[in-house]
Every structure is written in structure tokens, then in C-alpha cells.
Amino acid sequence: MLNRCVAKKRRYAEISNEKNQEEIKVYNFKVLLPNGTSVGIRLEQPGDQMHIIKFLELVRADHKRTFKDFDSSKSRRKIFWNSESVYLEDATGCKIRYKILFCQFLPKICHFLILYDGQENMALSYENMWDLTPRTDLLTELPESYIFVTALADLIDNSLQAVWSNNTNERKMISVTVDEARISIFDTGPGMDETEENSIGKWGEMGASLHRLSKRQAVGGKPPYLKPFFGMFGYGGPIASMYIGRHTVVSSKRKESKKVYHLHLKREALLHGSGGASWKTGGGLRDPLEDEKKSSPHGSFTKVEIFKPKQRPMDVFKLQCRLKDIYFPYIQVIDQGL
User: Fold this and answer.
1) Same domain, 102 and 203
2) Contact predicate 211/233, CB 8 Å
3) 0.90 cut: is pTM over it?
4) % helix / strand / coil in the chain, to the nearest 5?
């Protein structure tokens, strides 16, 4: 009888602890500041709401702590924390001028907020916006068979996987532009944003493609797209883009988002600054361009732009032939070229 009572009390205690753990709400914010920096704010059990002045006090303190050792020779724009025109704006364009209502934010995921301080010279991109953990050894240990065209194919693989998931009434398009100064891959897939499940930051996490071992399953089916098992080279977007060029900008938008999220990858910064446990890179938010809206009427896309290619791209016709050879098992379109 005593053992039964003890067991009952233990079960009650476990249920009580689980209930308490479930009730703990943690809110995470990444605040993008007017001077091009960003800070992370973590709030545990903040209540139902918080006045913007109190929230900005936390942001200001974290900013001061984070950048206390900043090199003063590099000038940064002053932030007018006490401006009467100060407000926050979330990714949907909603302006917060007085109170942050936490019921409007899901706990445990990171939400982006832009701080406006009433001045005109706002930053367009932000330092340390995305936190990536790269495996930089892949950059120096690529096989000899991994060349310009296979790296480009890795990026096209990403786009093929993306457009495959589009609905039947949504445009499926992949556009590749190659010239001496810039290489661009644009697709009308579902896009990415700041949410955990669709984070653009995951694009920058280095590693092998999850689909490369399923190559054989892609053969057969209804053309032009077969089963969504691509990635035969398997090194992924970051490795491929850093192999091709020195600076990459990834811009992406989901249908639900009003803003385009973008992140920046620089090869030199990656190789020289990756000795720690994590690597942070810059990024930002912007409005979609007219040509982007025209190319994707349903409102979602991803664009990868690679600048300063390390080698002169091959002849476009030869490149088309090489890519056609690579994707012959996947693309079954007769007499339509690449």
C-alpha cells in the first residue's frame, strides 16, 4: 500500500513538472538595428505584453554589451533610441509603436523585428543576421570530378527540388543566367523565410544533400519533372556557390511573406572566421523587385546570385550541352532543348 502511494505521488509530481514545463513560454527575437547591426533577445515568461520602451532598453543593453569592443575606427550610424518616432516592424509589415503583444508571436521560434528611429539613412543589410555552423573542410576536400558545371548542377538540383512541390496552378520555372561578372539561378519554388521549418539560414548550413542516395528513384514518371529525388553530387548550395565564386547573395520569399529575406556568404570570411563553434553571416529584408513579381505570379521564389566567379564560365552552348547530359535521366522533353 505504501509503495502504491509513493508511486502515485511520483506520478503526480512528474505530471506536475511536465505541466509546469509546458507552461513556460520563451520568446526569441532578432532585432535588426538602423546602423546595420543585429542583436538577439530571449524573453522567458514575459507576461502577456511589454511596453516598447522596456523592450528597447533590453535591446540597447544587449547592443552595448555585444559591441563594446567594436573598432572605433569603423564608423557606424548613431541609433536614436529615444526618438519620438521610434517603432518596431515585424516581417508582415505590422508596426509596433506602444506595446508588444506576445499573443501575436509563437514561442520558441525566432521572430525578426526591424527598429526604425525616425532617421532616413536606414541600413539595408545587417551583420550577424544568420547563425550558420559550416563544415568548411568540404571547401578544401572536394573531389577532382567536382568542377564548375557540377557545382552549378548542385544549385540547379536545389531549384528542381523546390519547384517540384509547387501546386498545379503555380508556375514551375528555373532560370539560369551566366556571364563573366555574375551567375544567377532563379526558381519559383515555395521559397524561404525566418521560420524554423522554412529558414533561409538552413540554406547556408553546409552538408550533403538528403536526396543524393535516391538518384535511381528519380527515373520514370510523368515528364518534365519526375520524382523529386535530385542532388546527385550532394554538396549543397553553400559549397557549390563558394566553389564557383567569392560572394553569394541568396534572396527568397514565401507567398505568406510581404518581405524578401536575403543572406550573404563570402568565401574569405567563411574560411578565416570559421574556427569557432558557429559562424554568423549578414543578411536583411527588402521588398520584392518588379521582375521577381513578374517571374513568379503566385508570389514565392528563391534567387541565388554568385558574384566574382573564380574562373571564366565556359561557352553557353557547351554549358547547355553539359547540363543536358547531366539531367537526361530527369528531364524527358523531346525537341525542346535544355
Assistant:
1) no
2) no
3) no
4) 30, 25, 45
